[in-house]
Amino acid sequence: MAQLDFYANSSDIIEVIDYMFDLSPMKLFEAYSRKDHEIREFKSSKDILESSHIEDNHGGVFVRGWWESVTSKPHIKKFGLNPSVGEFRESVEGVGTFQLLQGRPHDLADNALKLSSFTHWTEKGAFQRANYSDEEVCEVNWKEFKSLSGKLHRHIRNSLFQAKLFKRPILKGAHLDLENGGTLFGQPGVYTIGSKEIES
Question: pLDDT tens digit string along 100-116?
Fold first, then answer.
């Protein structure tokens, strides 16, 4: 898997999503639907903000999607639930998809902000470990995927970051929260604006 971990508040995540839409035509959905609801598509960050998505996900963004130049084969999977909970939920599945998960405050560590992550399969990893057919893996334009993902990684690391904690970027909004008394959760502890581990 390719993965980039970083510290971000809601404004940072929205800025990341806006950049992803600007990079190339993109389809974006909530990672999992609400119970007994069809999955929602977001055509912009504004759609996310105007929906109940962040509230439904305990204060954070949790989305999956794909760039249209990378793949055309993802699908919506419907799965049943325990009847005591509901009837069904839906999720976005596909070897050419990415996932963006916003870190939330850690309720067991003084509400310190946890890491956000952007993840997706690599071609090598998909052939070796993904539960998809070779035909599905070959359908993905891996060169394009690597290029777009690399541009996003560089944008986060070079343009959006304000500082680093253990080499993980702290984006501007999260850093402002840190300056205003917030904390970050990172093994092995909780870190504040004065922590020596935080590098500008």
Answer: 999 998 877 788 999 99
Token code pair at residue 33? 């639907």
Count of domains forming the chain:
1
Global confidence as pTM: 0.94
- The first and second tokens of residue 5, run together, are 């971990």
Contact 76, 66 (CB under 8 A): no
Structure tokens that stand for 78 in this block: 């419907």
Give domain status of residue 181, yes or no: no
- List the structure tokens of 173: 């909004």
69: in domain: yes
Cα-flanking dihedrals φ and ψ of residue 188, to 5°?
-105, 30
